[in-house]
Amino acid sequence: MNKQNWQLSLTTCLIISIPLIGVPLSVKAQEASAEALPITTIQESDYLVGPGDKLRIDIFKVSEYSGEYLVLVDGTVTLPLVGPLPVVGLTLTQMSEQISQAYANYLKRPIATVSLLSPRPLRISISGEIASPGSYSFNFQERQQFPTVTSLIERAGGLTTIANIEEVKIQRQIAGKTELITVNLWELINHGDLGQDITLRDGDQVVIPTKIAVDTRENRQLTNVNFGIQVQDSFPITIIGEINRPGAHEIEPRRDPETGKGDPPSLTTAIAKAGGIKPLADIRNIEIHRLTRGGEEHIIAVDLWELLRNGDLNQDIILQQGDKIIIPKAQEINPEEAQALAEASFAPDTIEVKVVGEVTNPGGVKVPPNTPLNQAILAAGGFIQGRAKQKEVELIRLNPDGTVSKRSIAVDFSQNLNETQNPPLQENDVIVVHTTGGARFGDTMNAIFGPLRGLPLIPLLN
Question: Is 241 a residue whose pLDDT tops 70?
Fold first, then answer.
């Protein structure tokens, strides 16, 4: 190779060095106006220079002009002979070319090499369906790597339950133009496509859009992703309707006592916290009213009967701060469903019934839901021997519609739970244990002759 060709080859070579080694990413690019553009390839090495960057500039065979330079707040670097040179917004390749052109007035065929020694702190914003939207700063010196989409989401507290991660938007300034990059994080989760987790740049604006329809299966999957739905210590929700303690409640995650790991609170957690459902609760048509970050209200329909009947855990919706739960009232519930509801995990832990009359400890008794009548009598101390009418008791029930029903129950302590002789009890049931005829006669005689006790017998005879 002759000297002229050797020099020509050198002039065409501008060496670019950057700490981050990446691969080309194929992503969807759009103008800010949302007008579709062809798919473009964005190189991870296309770093844009900005104030605070520390650079190494080498001028080939001119060591006195080479050295380390800091990009000043006005976006310039001050070079020997050249003076202040605007470089903000340029890639390292563009900056190398510009420096070569600037020194062409002083040097013969100058060759410039620019490398990034220490990137400036990056300032990136995130908004939309994210736990803690806002602006975040990343210091390269601390992490020794540039932030990615998922690391930013994780730092911002994770996703909300209505986040649409199929179309995460990154608004970026490239060559003086605003472009919109769309990434699909489900491809990363389901197929390990690291190309979707792109490296972020200073000034990027990340937007997590709202999902129109909530997919409970996806939500449960996102609870096991490091940047997904995070477990909070506690947060407020409101629950109204056919619930024992309606109103605002602070709910906490369910944690494993051994590992300390927890799951985000769900619908059944909130119902249990509010004292459980009432007997006439319509669990087929529960509604969860949820606000998006934009202030719009989404209504999520829930059928908890599918959870009880078929074990469909996807009906146990994961809750988020500010949710309002509405449990409507059913027109009627058949006995089989009532029993299943009483045994559900979101039913009250105890109900209160009253046992009055000829028992040892008459009054209110707290028992588990669906406790049989015989067990409630025993919980009240059992019959008073010689006074209680033990063959039959009366069950008075205040129905949810406000009516009162009354029926006689033949008592047989050998009976298991059954609707005829040992029925399951409901909240506010009253069991009346009547007095035997002999005891009533004795009480009557005592009422008549009781006042005569202690008086002298002879004056009475006279």
Answer: yes
